[in-house]
Specification:
This protein has 316 residues and is an alpha+beta fold. Helix content is 46%, strand content 19%.
């Protein structure tokens, strides 16, 4: 899986009309490391990137569960009013509005994340039950720009970051894997994200703003806070209000827009909490779907041989 193969694929894909850059594991892009909100987990042994529609899992349960809370409230009102039959009916309706979409979203397979294993220095990806991978050392990656034109948005510049992977035990079956959504990103941003991945794999698990090895995980935690989480709307709005209060010395800091921001966040908070709860349950169930050759390499005491090593041994 050489860079020349990647250049050929990009040339066919872009037709030479877009700006692109070839990236490597051992050469810096000159950018500072930065996440773009796509990192789901950053641990000592592996880094997980959200993949596909999985990041929206739980949204339906959050919306219907939020509506269900209204019927639960009505059931309490009816119960206190002595109307037991109406109370039971509304309670069952409220519970059903949560349970049905919850089971549907939790029991459906969640797309597995893209994994960067720091111990074995390789990348894993699963699609339609097939395992794809690439060794980190010598990985073929590229970032490129493209334009989208819409009737309402006009022209929008976007940038994609893709790596070349191949199917396990079938090296002739290759594909370009996108590391996150390209919408609204620039070439510089994608290069910064690549630097984050490089810093993790080469200098990690913890590193500073320049990508150098660090004993502290403070920078990684600050970057992970960029990731949007549905249940964090209210804490974020409250923090902004407290910062505004401190800046004003505690006087005349609460204006109409700030009050409405906190009120709106508080109103939507239950929906966000339900959505995040559903997503976390679905994510835990999905982790067990990785093949054994991946699961054992995610353990701290697991083997450190790469999948490409296994392929070479079988071909000997």
């Amino acid at each position: 899986m050489s860079s020349q193969t990647l250049r050929t694929l990009l040339a066919d894909k872009l037709g030479g009309n877009s700006q692109s850059t070839i990236l490597s594991a051992d050469q810096s892009t000159g950018q500072q490391p930065m996440t773009l909100g796509d990192i789901e987990e950053h641990t000592e042994n592996y880094l997980a990137l959200e993949n596909g529609e999985g990041k929206y899992r739980g949204m339906l349960t959050g919306a219907f569960g939020f509506a269900g809370l209204f019927f639960v409230f009505l059931s309490i009102v009816f119960w206190l009013d002595g109307r037991a039959q109406s109370a039971i009916e509304n309670l069952l309706l409220g519970f059903g509005l949560f349970l049905i979409p919850f089971l549907w979203e939790v029991l459906r397979p969640l797309p597995l994340p893209i994994l960067f294993n720091r111990r074995t220095r390789e990348l894993y990806f699963e699609q339609d039950g097939e395992l794809y991978h690439s060794p980190w050392d010598g990985i073929a990656a590229a970032a490129y720009e493209f334009h989208m034109v819409g009737p309402y948005t006009g022209g929008m510049r976007n940038a994609a970051l893709e790596v070349l992977v191949h199917r396990f035990n079938h090296p002739e079956e290759q594909m370009l894997l996108s590391l996150g959504l390209p919408m609204g990103k620039s070439l510089d941003l994608q290069e910064s994200f690549w630097e984050y991945l490089r810093s993790y794999m080469n200098n990690g698990p913890w590193f500073d703003e320049q990508g150098n090895n660090s004993a502290s995980d403070a920078f990684a935690k600050s970057q992970l806070e960029i990731r949007y989480r549905a249940g964090q709307g209210l804490p974020f709005a409250w923090q902004r209000l407290q910062e505004k209060r401190q800046a004003a010395g505690g006087k005349n800091y609460l204006d109409y827009s700030s009050a409405m921001m906190v009120f709106g966040a508080a109103l939507m908070h239950p929906m966000g909490v339900i959505q995040e709860f559903t997503y976390n349950i679905a994510k835990r169930r999905a982790r067990n779907r990785w093949p054994d050759v991946v699961m054992e390499r995610l353990r701290e005491d697991g083997p450190t041989t790469r999948l490409i090593d296994l392929e070479q041994e079988r071909n000997v």
